[in-house]
Amino acid sequence: MKVRAIYPGSFDPITNGHIYIAERAAAIFDEVIVSVLVNERKSAAFTVKERCEMARDSLKHVANIKVDSFNGLLVDYVKQKEAAVIIRGLRAMSDFEYEFQMALMNRQLAPEIETFFIVTDPKYSYVSSSSVREIFHFGGTVKDVVPRVVFEKLKTLHKGK
Ligand code: ADP
Questions:
Q1: Which pTM does this prediction carry?
Q2: Which of 26, 53, 69, 112 is most exposed, with the fewest beta carbons within 10 Å of its own?
Q3: Total domains present in the chain
């Protein structure tokens, strides 16, 4: 039986930390779907389309990774995709409490779905989408922590906005 895993997130934008997690998940599971959350309540820097394009471009080297978007309840989406696993990345203890609560909540909603945590590479432990946007905005260098396509796209972010 093929095991499909969903790696959900805002990916606003995707960083090398996310890519590291997606690659490691793809080495374990038959198929990984990186799924961009359409969150109407949280204002995003990039559109869902842009976030998907950046993710697709920076993960095209991995054959068993697909990129998709979703809204609504994560567990409903996971079931709809006939996936068995939710992937989440852990950077530090500070991620744990939130992630643990969410995993328990999702288990309550759908006991058959497993949340699978992958620990980041220490070199990405301080990397988040929001810090990337902020550092870039203030002229700092983010080249080492985002894929090339994201670096180029960041340059367009504050133009005309
Ligand atoms: P969300 O809004 O759902 O937290 P994010 O795009 O910020 O979406 O993160 C998606 C997932 O990737 C989360 O599990 C988060 O902990 C993980 N993640 C984010 N940045 C990194 C990183 N640098 N290394 C490893 N995992 C990360």
A1: 0.95
A2: 112
A3: 1
Its domain, for residue 15, covers: 4-159
Does ligand 1 have an atom closer than 6 angstroms to the CB of 7? Answer: no
Which alpha helices (DSSP H) does 9-111 contain, by range? 16-28, 48-58, 74-80, 93-109
Atom of ligand 1 nearest to the CA of 11: 6
Q: Please confirm, yes or no, whether 91 is among the known catalytic residues.
A: yes
Q: Whose CA is nearest to atom 8 of ligand 1?
A: 9
The secondary structure of residue 40, as a DSSP letter, is S
Task: Report whether 117 contacts 89 (CB < 8 A).
Answer: yes
The CATH number given to whatever domain includes residue 22 is: 3.40.50.620
- Residue-wise pLDDT for 120-140, tens only, equals 999 999 999 999 999 999 999
Q: Is 106's C-beta closer than 6 angstroms to any atom of ligand 1?
A: no
